[in-house]
Amino acid sequence: MKEEQQYEITICSDSVGETAEAVVRATIRQFDAHQVRTKRIGHIKTEDEIRTIMEEAAKRGGFVAYTLVQPELREMMKEEAVRLGVRAVDIMGPMMQAFIDTWGDAPKRKPGLLHQLDEDYFRRVEAIEFAVKCDDGRDTSALLKANLVLIGVSRTSKTPLSIFLAHKGIKVSNLPLVPEVKPPKELFLVPGNRIVGLTMDADKLYKIRTERLKAVGLPFGAKYAAIERIDEELRYAQALMKQLGCLVINVTDKAIEETAGIIMGYLN
């Protein structure tokens, strides 16, 4: 890719398009593709909409990724892709066809089934509200009510990981570890298999905290980002995690999704 050129991937769906966007973003992370942007178009109902979308994609020179459960819309997407010479990637179609070929079942052909207001949906909403309420140790009494407690020093991705897991229906409480602050007594009442410690290499944490100082306008030499202070905090956290007997994950080079996958596998 030429650095000065911008590229666009159009994401199409007859529902909200989250499935297709998740696949596209996972793919982008495998490349040095900072100049690639995505455009999501959801709730597509007609063939005319697809025709317009594909013509615009042809002008921009990108490609299209789509999840369309209606067969006539998928067929129109394929036809327009051929007519305009635009690459179109069918994300859901091959999976549905494999299901049909293997078990002889027929799909419901109803968009948005993943997002219906069912029991799972309300469980996710409850988990998200729980994660927000219990973020950064704000409600230590909730530690005993959580499905999972995340602990770690500042800037080890506790909050984004909590929210990501909450979207999976897991009630997560997270607690920052600071040498000068005694952990709440509730933490020691939580079973070790419901606690996960997050750690990070000191040099990586130094870079992250230094950038954080810049973002909030604090002086570069603040103790928060001093390597000596970071080493002290990491040693303290490691000793506490060992005392608790919990799983410890080094998140230095891991995306949130990768860490979440490890945790969900551990919980299961």
UniProtKB/TrEMBL annotation:
Nucleotide-binding among keywords: yes
EC number: 2.7.11.32, 2.7.4.27
Catalytic activity: N(tele)-phospho-L-histidyl/O-phospho-L-threonyl-[pyruvate, phosphate dikinase] + phosphate + H(+) = N(tele)-phospho-L-histidyl/L-threonyl-[pyruvate, phosphate dikinase] + diphosphate; N(tele)-phospho-L-histidyl/L-threonyl-[pyruvate, phosphate dikinase] + ADP = N(tele)-phospho-L-histidyl/O-phospho-L-threonyl-[pyruvate, phosphate dikinase] + AMP + H(+)
Keyword Transferase: yes
Keywords per UniProt: Kinase, Nucleotide-binding, Pyruvate, Serine/threonine-protein kinase, Transferase
Residue intervals passing through the bilayer: none
InterPro entries given in the database record: Kinase-pyrophosphorylase, PPDK_reg
Positions contributing to ADP binding: G152, V153, S154, R155, T156, S157, K158, T159
GO MF entry, a single one: transferase activity
UniProt record similarity statement: Belongs to the pyruvate, phosphate/water dikinase regulatory protein family. PDRP subfamily.
Function of the protein: Bifunctional serine/threonine kinase and phosphorylase involved in the regulation of the pyruvate, phosphate dikinase (PPDK) by catalyzing its phosphorylation/dephosphorylation.
NCBIfam families the record matches: PRK05339.1 (NF003742)
Name of the featured protein: Putative pyruvate, phosphate dikinase regulatory protein
Organism name: Paenibacillus ehimensis
